[in-house]
Amino acid sequence: MTLELISMAQAAAAHAPEAAGITGNLTMAIGGAGAAIGVGMVGSKAVEAVGRNPGAFGNILTLGIIAMALAEGLGIIAYLGGF
User: Measured between alpha carbons, how far is 31 from 34 in angstroms, rounded to an integer?
Assistant: First the structure.
């Protein structure tokens, strides 16, 4: 789906030069939204896991922070790829 949206934006940019900035903006928007959803899901599941097993708080926190950093990293890569 993402590739279809990008190809549609590129086709629009070919026919209308004023729409040339759509491709980069679209990439950054999808990447940012994906990163935000990923971080939210990791946080939600980490809270659920601590609720089930409070003794594993330290391990869950460590894994949650690593997973959030990886999700944010993909968002940053999408942001830099839009330029």
Answer: 5
DSSP letter (8 states) at residue 17: G
Task: Provide CB contacts within 8 A for 9, sequence distance 6+.
Answer: 19, 22, 23, 26
Describe the crossing of helices 22-52 and 2-15 by its angle, rounded to 10 degrees: 160
16: phi > 0 → left, psi -120 to 50 → alpha, else beta; which?
A: beta
pLDDT digits (tens, 9 = 90+) for 43-62: 999 999 999 999 999 999 99
C-alpha dihedral (80, 36, 24, 20), degrees to nearest 10: -160
| pTM assigned to the model | 0.67
Take residue 55 and report the two structure tokens written for it: 């003794």
pLDDT at residue 31 is higher than 80: yes
